[in-house]
Specification:
Length: 152
């Protein structure tokens, strides 16, 4: 039997959430807060014991513990109208969700970073969010050199 899916709201045409659970609804509302730059919409989505690991600083990202810390971080990011998020794909399986996204930090065609958040929802609240991104880091030159050497 195919896995059911739900289309996102009309202003996010082309994206869909796989799964039809409370988790899907929470993640849809979470993502909409960033797309719509509405940090206040996050208020009732974050659990008291939430733990979030940001994509930076490398290599492990900053860790935020507790509703207040996670909410403050996400509200500031969502409210920033100069740096939009675009969802590439959102998948939900039980209490887990994966959000693939693109974060634009400028107007140029290459001024963005792609990443993924691994989310967990319990009792209708986000309790865990682990962020990862494709960003050039200290090891990029070494990886590029290794790739060039193996291609030769």
């Amino acid at each position: 039997m195919p896995i059911p899916y739900r289309e996102l709201s009309s202003h996010r045409v082309g994206h869909r959430i796989v799964g039809m659970t409370d988790t899907a609804e929470v993640i849809e509302r979470f993502n909409a807060a960033f797309v719509d730059h509405d940090g206040a919409a996050l208020e009732d989505l974050i659990g008291e014991e939430c733990v979030m690991e940001a994509v930076e600083p490398a290599p492990n990202g900053a860790r935020y513990e507790g509703r207040g810390a996670c909410l403050a971080f996400w509200r500031a990011l969502a409210d920033d109208r100069t740096s939009p998020f675009e969802a590439e794909e959102i998948m939900v399986a039980g209490d887990r969700a994966t959000i693939r996204w693109r974060f634009r930090f400028g107007t140029g065609p290459q001024e963005y970073v792609r990443g993924v958040n691994l989310m967990r929802v319990v009792d209708g609240r986000i309790v865990e969010a682990l962020g990862y991104s494709k960003t050039p880091g200290v090891g990029s030159a070494q990886l590029a050199a290794l790739t060039d050497a193996t291609d030769a």
